[in-house]
Structure formats: structure tokens, C-alpha cells
Write a structure and sequence with these properties.
heterodimer, A: about 110 residues, mainly beta, three-stranded antiparallel sheet, B: about 110 residues, seven-stranded mixed sheet, 11 strands
Chain lengths: ~110, ~110
Amino acid sequence: AQRVTQPEKLLSVFKGAPVELKCNYSYSGSPELFWYVQYSRQRLQLLLRHISRESIKGFTADLNKGETSFHLKKPFAQEEDSAMYYCALLTGGGNKLTFGTGTQLKVEL
Amino acid sequence: EAQVTQNPRYLITVTGKKLTVTCSQNMNHEYMSWYRQDPGLGLRQIYYSMNVEVTDKGDVPEGYKVSRKEKRNFPLILESPSPNQTSLYFCASSMGQGVGEKLFFGSGTQLSVL
């Protein structure tokens, strides 16, 4: 069965420091992965998807099939990056999005 | 404004009293889904719908019902709520018959079952 693991519940970094939010997945098929973000008092929203290979708000994520990982990275953390981040895996022929347990990122001044 | 609207925002009820959480989207999306969010467990899918009159179970469907009579509405029904259904619930929709490009989420319904 598919599974998404985010090992860190809370990650606290100083402003300007690099950030890496870890995500590992387990899936026998061809994975399609996403990062969703939930800022305080806002709705959950898509941050980026691996197919697009884009950089959103300075964040990037590369799919590593060998390590079954999709870590989210940003070279210099900003205060406004503080939020809850969820990694998600699309399966079931595109009908099912399995979320990890989330990582709370706190950027301190 | 394109959005997913859930009601109510907060609900406190007692065990066994039937309740319905409504979800409506104005984007003509075919795919709709319900999730519950619990500390340490993340978001877990309850039910999803690929189109009108087409629904299917997610990972945690026990104790819940859904219906999709119209494209825009996807209500979540708890026939006999129990305390273990106390949670934060999110409705989401997406264009196409699958999750597709991205999910649009509602603002959530905090349910407490006493």
C-alpha cells in the first residue's frame, strides 16, 4: 500500500538559514508527488508538484526515485515561510491523494 | 470568487445526533473529496467523488456517508456521531475526474462530539 512519511513534526530554523523538509514515500507504481502548505488561518493550498519542476516562493523539490524521496528545500528561510507543510502522493489512477503527517516549520528571527 | 465553501465552521454536538456538513464549489469541478485532519495523523481521506452519482471510499470511511446529487455539492453525513469523530474536516475539489492539477480546499469544519 502507498505511504508517505514525514519524519519531523516540527522544524525550527533561523531566518536566512537553509531549510529542508523531508518526505519519503512508498509506492509500487510511478509516483506523482506534491507539497501542500497551510499558513496560519488560511486554507491548505498547493505549493508545488514534481512534474512541473518549478520553484515557488523559493522552494524546490526533486523527486529521487532511488531514495524514494521528495524533500522540500529552500536556501534561505523567511519569516513568512512559517507554516504547516504536507507532502502528498497521487495514486489510484489519479483518484487518491495520500498525505503525510505534516511538518510544522517555524522560522525564528 | 472561485472557492470551496464549507458549513458550519464550528460544530459541537452530542453522541448519536445526526449531522450534515455541507460542501459546495463554484468552479464546475468534477472531483470532490472529504478529509479529516488529526494531530499526528495528518490528513486522511474519508470519501471521494469523481462525478455526479459516483462516490467511493477513502481510507477512513467508517461512520460517514456522502452523496453527490449535484456537481457543485458534496455533503458529509454522520448518521450517529461518536467522540472519535471529533476532528477538523476539509472538503476539497479538483478539475477533471481525478485529483489532477491540484486540489482546492475549503476552510475547514471543526467538529466536537461530546
